[in-house]
Design goal:
The complex is a heterodimer of chains A (119) and B (116). Chain A is mainly β and 119 residues long. Chain A contains no helices and eleven strands. In chain A, a hairpin with a 2-residue loop joins strand 7 and strand 8. Chain A is globular and about 45 Å long. In chain B, 38% of the residues are buried. In chain B, strand 5 and strand 6 form a beta hairpin. Chain B is built from no helices and twelve strands. In chain B, strands 2, 5, 6, 10, 11 and 12 form a six-stranded mixed β-sheet that branches. Classes of the chains: A mainly beta (119), B mainly beta (116).
């Protein structure tokens, strides 16, 4: 496997279900991200993990719960979702500069996404 | 706050011709990075090209080049010799040098269709 992989690629779930999205990066990066892409809306950053520590949580509802057990794996646990949560969920990774001074240069590499439909 | 504007919801280009996709941005950060991504119908966001705010020369990557005009705050993507496989959604994105530096701010995208 190369780059960033995500499973499953498609998911249909009811509002009472619990499911998890998985992301794995094979690039040796130290930061991972979850983005949400809804129809007709720009991508929205949900969570950021740097060195396995959550460093950003952009006002995401608690029905979304991220987990980063190591620098290569990132999960998004889903429970009691709403139909408006239907979207493409994209995982990304990057190599962060430890000093943080030139973070604007760091390219984020994305996975193929999981298309989620909540019924 | 940062903002990316892509004013072309859709563009058409004839195969083998060049096409320019527009992007303007707004930021108060003196340091920032500009990125272009391609998203085919399969959904994957594919990184194409990067331009730093302090770079003196326009970035180029194969058939992709970035026309960076800092004073006008524009970072247009030029695709030369278009191919049918270039048909996709194209997103301009920015990453600032301070504050929410980890966040990529995306534009609304341009749907490019290459005609045979």
């Amino acid at each position: 496997e190369t780059g960033v992989t995500q499973t499953p690629r498609h998911l249909v779930m009811g509002m009472t279900n619990k499911k998890s999205l998985k992301c794995e990066q094979h690039l040796g990066h130290n930061a991972m991200y979850w983005y949400k892409q809804s129809a007709k809306k720009p991508l929205e950053l949900m969570f950021v993990y740097s060195l396995e520590e959550r460093v950003e949580n952009n006002s995401v509802p608690s029905r979304f719960s991220p987990e980063c057990p190591n620098s290569s794996h990132l999960f998004l646990h889903l429970h009691t979702l709403q139909p408006e949560d239907s979207a493409l969920y994209l995982c990304a990774s990057s190599q962060e500069d430890s000093g943080g001074g030139r973070r604007y240069e760091e390219t984020q590499y994305f996975g193929p996404g999981t298309r989620l439909l909540v019924l | 706050a940062q903002k990316i504007t892509q004013t072309q919801p859709g563009m058409f280009v004839q195969e083998k011709e060049a096409v320019t996709l527009d992007c303007t941005y707004d930021t108060s950060d003196p340091s920032y990075g500009l990125f272009w991504y391609k998203q085919p119908s399969s959904g994957e966001m594919i990184f194409l090209i990067y331009q730093g705010s302090y770079d003196q020369q326009n970035a180029t990557e194969g058939r992709y080049s970035l026309n960076f005009q800092k004073a006008r705050k524009s970072a247009n993507l030029v695709i030369s010799a278009s191919q049918l496989g270039d048909s996709a959604m194209y997103f301009c994105a920015m990453r600032g040098g301070s504050g929410s530096a980890r966040q990529l701010t995306f534009g609304s995208g341009t749907q490019l269709t290459v005609l045979p």
